[in-house]
Amino acid sequence: MIDRSAPRGVLPAPRPRGVATVQAALPVRPRTGRLLVLATVFVCAACGLVYELELLALASYLIGDSVTQTSVVLSVMVFAMGVGSLLAKRLRGRPAVGFAAVEAALALLGGLSATSLYASFAWLGEARPALVAFSLAIGVLIGAEIPLLMTLIQRVRRQDAGGAVADLFAADYVGALVGGLAFPFLLLPLLGQLTGAMLTGTVNAAVGGALVLWLFRRDLSGRARWLLLAANVGVLAVLASATLLADDFERVARRAVYGGDVRVALQTGVQELVLTGPSTGSPRSLDLYLDGRLRVSGYDEYRYHEALVHPAMTGPHGRVLVLGGGDGLAAREVLRHPDVARVTVVDLDPGVVRLARTDPMLSVLNAGAYGDPRVEVVTTDAFRWLRGLPARQFDVIVSDLPDPGITPSTKLYSQEFYGLAARALRPGGRIAVHAGSLTTRPHTFWTVEATLRAAGLATAPYSAGGRLSGFAAGPDRTLGVSGTSPQDWGFVLAAVGHRPELRVDRDTPALRSLSTAALRDSAREAEHQRIKGLPPSTLPHPRYSAS
């Protein structure tokens, strides 16, 4: 018998064995019911993408090497979505019940995924297994949605398969767009990662449950209706309780990660800032973490900043550019030279600069550098800022940036970036670059040096020892090739046209850890460890990794 409901010229879709295809008895007109199903597709797609972005953001923050974590999450989730689509075939006989169960499970797992990932990292010290497990489970559930929704929309009003698929995927893609934009611009800055995921799960459970329990309620037996209602109420209750306890959980987990003396913890539009140590007393006990990685330790920061800044100050240094260094500590060292006329600090995060200005301990540590009228602060992307800068502006450039490969700062260690920096130097100018640990990450260090040479700069590599604050004591448990925490800092001093001399000027204010003899000894030791033949890192071909 011919199906008269099929559009003219289109053969009716075959009816799968055991799958009901008769029109459902709905409390609304079919047109309205179809719009409600598509609206549910829209919301579920937005929620699914938020879960995915939450996992990506938290994995990059906790584990580092964002490229690797993005690849792991995306590849596992896409694979799992295919598995979920196949498994959904078993639920097509009862699509309403199946879809409601999938959405309840997805809301619970997705809503608690960020919290579980952070808990795994805080108390177990490892987040990768949890990351893979949640990516797999959430991917399976997301993959099961579309086949079930396809069956439900056909229950509302039969139409050709191509038209139904087009409608579903249009709603799905638009929902993904909204979810993708809502995460960085709304959920993350206003609610944070943990509460944002829980709110997304709440919306997911409410919308998915409401569609089935109201629109398709006549497809459910009385027992199924009550079971689904209880499951959705239970999921909403769990997520609501977790939301109420989120702040307490964060405090407890943060103490497990950073220790018991967390004094400042805030999420800026760029990263998470955590400051530990007492608010009074010696600044030596202060530690500053950016996105979970120890950036400043009051115990030994002077060794790092003296070695970074002062070798570059031998020669003209009237105008100095500090890239990064929003904590003000590199600027402090620059300002120890009284003949400096201008210091420009370019940092992406205004929150770091604000903290360095206002926090009593951090401002003591940086000697009130931002109160000096010679200091100018620019809060923007350093790469974009250098591109718009006229040539020959600075005598000295100090690149005080996080290690390449661990953070998204990799582009600031590229040949293109160093070319822009070289253009900004005046004749006889120098650039000092923090290049990571020479002993534990030698491949990264010598790649930085090779990249500087490829940009037309002559280089003088060196290092500074006496590092007391290793990664292993903090939340960043990344170790070097030797399996130990870094014990040194590696630097490269570079100049255009001539190899700069490693020394400290005689009129340099008294230093606590640096001397010309120590610099030259470290340079000789570095040359003994040189890795030759490394290609430079470029924007289209970055060559840094977290290992």
Automatic annotation (TrEMBL):
It catalyses: S-adenosyl 3-(methylsulfanyl)propylamine + putrescine = S-methyl-5'-thioadenosine + spermidine + H(+). GO terms for molecular function: spermidine synthase activity. Keywords: Cell membrane, Membrane, Polyamine biosynthesis, Spermidine biosynthesis, Transferase, Transmembrane, Transmembrane helix. Spermidine binds at H305, D327. Its main location: membrane. The active site is at D400. It is found in: Cell membrane. The chain crosses the membrane at residues 35-63, 69-88, 100-124, 130-153, 165-188, 194-214, 226-246. Residues 521-530 have a biased composition (Basic and acidic residues). CDD domains: AdoMet_MTases. Pathway: Amine and polyamine biosynthesis; spermidine biosynthesis; spermidine from putrescine: step 1/1. Residues 521-547 are annotated as: Disordered. It is a multi-pass membrane protein. S-methyl-5'-thioadenosine binds at Q271, D347, D381, A382, P408. Its EC number is 2.5.1.16. Catalyzes the irreversible transfer of a propylamine group from the amino donor S-adenosylmethioninamine (decarboxy-AdoMet) to putrescine (1,4-diaminobutane) to yield spermidine. This is Polyamine aminopropyltransferase. It comes from Streptomyces antimicrobicus. The lineage of its organism: Bacteria, Bacillati, Actinomycetota, Actinomycetes, Kitasatosporales.
